[in-house]
Amino acid sequence: MLVGIVSDTHDNGEQVDAAVTTFEELGVETVVHCGDFVAPFSVTPFDGDWDFYAVRGNNDGEWVVEATVDDFGTYMGEMGELTLDGQEIAVYHGTSGAIVDALVECGTYDYVFHGHSHEAGTEEYEGTVRVNPGGIAIPPAPGAFSVATLDTESGELEFHELG
């Protein structure tokens, strides 16, 4: 299964559209948003031909974001757990680095998806892979907006810079 991972889109319609288009072109089957949509209009473009999951980010100030996600996907609140193709995945926005570290280090998950820092990256710790797909460019993370894809069968993780 090909999973699209995105975070920290912050109402940037251009970047949201770029992420959706990339996921469509790659044929992802599941999209996971790690929070910080900000407003409901940034949620609706993710209503696509895939399963959709999202967690709350620290800038998701409008509670109607939850209802908008639930119209076509699954809103998991502050943190969620998924099993995709036998892979155990924790999803959390990443507001607390200590919580991200605890999720990675607990040994329960194959993957921990998070955002918040806007810096794309990955690392492995004793069999658990931490994945931050990145976010819109904001200081101190001025890099290009990116998303990630994970092939759950092969374990191949790829980052896609979208501008």
What are the salient characteristics of this protein?
163 residues; alpha/beta; 6-stranded mixed sheet; 11 strands; globular
Care to describe what's here?
The protein is of the alpha/beta class and 163 residues long. Helices cover 18% and strands 31% of the residues. The chain contains three helices and eleven strands; from the N terminus they run βαββαβββαβββββ. The strands form two sheets. It has a six-stranded mixed β-sheet, covered by helices on one side. It has a five-stranded mixed β-sheet with strand order 5-6-7-9-8, with helices on one face. A hairpin with a 2-residue loop joins strand 8 (121-125) and strand 9. The radius of gyration is 14 Å and the shape is globular. The two termini are 26 Å apart. The relative contact order is 0.20. The mean pLDDT is 96.
Helix and strand topology:
Blueprint: E1 2-6, H1 13-26, E2 30-33, E3 51-54, H2 64-70, E4 74-75, E5 79-84, E6 87-92, H3 97-105, E7 111-113, E8 121-125, E9 128-132, E10 146-151, E11 157-161
Parallel strand pairs: 1-2, 2-3, 3-4, 6-7, 7-9
Antiparallel strand pairs: 1-10, 5-6, 8-9, 10-11
Helix/strand-derived class? alpha/beta
Largest sheet: 6 strands, mixed
Q: How does the overall form come out from the CA principal axes?
A: globular
For the largest sheet, list the strands in their spatial order: 4-3-2-1-10-11
Number of β-strand runs: 11
Low-confidence segments = none
Mean pLDDT across the residues is 96
Helix fraction bin: 10-25%
